[in-house]
Structures are given as structure tokens and as C-alpha cells.
Amino acid sequence: MFTSLPFLFVVSVAAGQLDPVEPAPLELLEVEPILERVAPPVEAKYPPGTLLFVDASSLAMRTGPKIDSALVKYIPKDGRVTAIPDVLEPQEETIGGKKGQWLYIQNGQHKGYVFDAFLVEAPASINETMEWVCEPGNRVGPINWQTTYEDLVYHFGQVNVSDAKIPTGDGQFEKGTQIFGGDPGRQLVIQWAIYKIKPKAIVVTGSKWRTRSGYGPGVSLTKMLALNGAAISFAGFEWEHAGFVTNWQGGNFSETDTLREDVLVYFAANSPYLPDDYEKLVGDVEYSSDMPEAEKVNIKVASMTVYIKEK
Question: How far is CA 199 from the centre of its chain?
Fold first, then answer.
């Protein structure tokens, strides 16, 4: 038996002899290299500097990014923490049925790791803990003359704070800050005396807000008259200062909410109403709530601007 063949032989029957035959060239197959699959790097959900709030009865802060790392402290519900730079790469895991990452944070003077699945970007119980009260000339909720942009983020969460453009007339705008933008129940817009450092006024359109006297956006003219204990004068509709309240007529609000000094209040008509009734309340004219048409067009408070005075 041949163990090594330098070339192949075939039998030529006709000639009775062996003829050498050159071997056919071998065809090489191209084989793609087998690459090891590498999982893409996990990106941190919250970059350094992000202010976050605890959304649990309490949250453990630990010395390392493991559930069995030593305990530093427990942070209570709605406790505020700030994400800080970390040399460790984030890793995703599931704890308590929630998927998340270990986040390096600071809380007061303490630094450590918490599991970010139990953090949110706005206080979880803000609707229950917020005082939805306006004090004309003084404050709106926690916002007073000393409130800065950073304070707004602290109170309301970064997710609820955004930049705004406030029309000033003739197509001009000034920079402002919006709280709860697009939320008809809670929305505010802040006008700044010094941008993001010192407020001068707050435009209130959210229907949850009320003054100490009991009025606010959405309150009907009928209730306003009952609270004031007197008629109310207002500017007509369909012009630059439409629905502007001009006089409390010596009522209860005159003692607490000085118009044009502490607060501006704007009325608006609300359908359904008859066009003829509405037309009698249009224009740069002062009208009184005593007019029968005032009740017929379903007037309500549309907005109010609360001035913030330096104390």
C-alpha cells in the first residue's frame, strides 16, 4: 500500500502502460473568522449632577455596588440625592423585581451607592406634600424672592423645570422658567428680576393653586363675588389687556390682595354663551360684575400674576 503519492496514476488499457497524471489543483475555501460576541457597554442612566428623589419607604446607601456591601445609611422617602462621578462602569441587574444600576451618589455629607430603580426625577409625593398656596406680594408655594433656579430643581425636580419665553409685547420676549409645563393643574411661569437668581413675578395658570383668600385659576365669577363680598370691576375682552380685574370695589380682597401691586387677576368668558351677551363685554372699557351679561358668559379666573417682593 502506498503511504505517499507524489502524483496519481491511471491505467491506459490501450497502451498497457501506466501514464502519470498531474493532480488537479486544490481549491481553497474562504472561512470567515469566528468573532467573539461582546455586549455593548452599559450607559449610566443618570449623569453626574442629576438631582434625584427616593421613591420607596427608604433606600439603603452602601459602600459598594453590591447588595451585600456594608450599609452607610438609609435615605427616607422623597430624600434628595445627587449623582456624582464614579470610576466603576455601570452594570445592570435586578433587585426586588426591578431592573436598574448601582449609582454613586451624595446625600448630605455621605457618599455611597444606591440602586437607581428606586429613584425618580421628581418627588414621588409632590402632590401630597406641596402647599398649593399663593400669597400675593410674597410667594407661590415654596417660591419667594430668594429662590434660585437650583432651588426650583430642588423643590420640583429637574424633569418639571424648563426654560420659557415670555411675550412682552411688540413681538418681543424675555427669558423665563416654566414649572410643570403643559400641566393644566399645576403650571407656573417665573419672570426673573435677575435671570435664574431672583424672581420678580409668577404667572399662575394651574388650577390647583389658590390664594389665601380662596381664589385662583378656574374659580367662577359667582364664587369670586361670594369671597369678595362685593362687586368686581374688570376690563372688557378682545384687546391687549382682556379681562384684567381693575377694582375689588372695596370688598374683602382689597385688604389682602392689592391689585397691580401684589397681584394681577385676569377673567375669561367660557362657552357656551350667546354671542350677543359676549359682545356687550368687549373692548377697552371697564365693566362691572353687576351686569347681567357677566353671569351669562360664564366668567372664570383664567390666570393671575403674583408679584414677589424683596423682604
Answer: 20
AA letter at 308 = I
* Whole-number Å distance between alpha carbons of 174 and 186: 22
pLDDT for 141-182, tens place per residue? 999 999 999 999 989 999 999 999 998 878 899 999 999 999
Residue identified by cell 374688570 is 234
- Indicate the pTM of the whole model: 0.75
133-135 vs 139-140, strand pairing mode: antiparallel
Spatial separation of the C-alpha atoms in residues 38 and 306, rounded to whole Å: 57
The closest alpha carbon to 152, from 182, 197, 116, 217, belongs to 197
Cα–Cα distance measured from residue 65 to residue 69, given in angstroms and rounded to the nearest whole number: 7
3-state secondary structure of 291: coil
Running DSSP on this structure, what letter comes out for residue 12?
Answer: E
Q: Residues 182-211, buried b or exposed e (16+ Cβ, 10 A)?
A: eeeebbbbbbbeeebeebebbbbbbbbbbb
Res 29: pLDDT: 59
> 262: closest CA among 211, 217, 302?
211
Contacts of 259 (CB under 8 A, 6+ apart): 245, 246, 247, 248, 265
Closest to 265 in 3D by CA, of 247, 285, 286:
247
In whole angstroms, what is the distance from residue 97 CA to residue 248 CA?
58
- Is residue 155 classed as helix, strand or coil in its secondary structure? helix
Domains within the chain, CATH numbers bracketed: 51-120 (2.30.30), 130-311 (2.60.460)
178: Cβ contacts below 8 Å, ≥ 6 apart: 161, 162, 163, 164, 187, 188, 189, 190
Helix, strand, coil percent content, the chain, rounded in steps of 5: 15, 40, 50
Place of cell 389665601: 212
Dig out the grid coordinates for 55 from the structure: 421613591
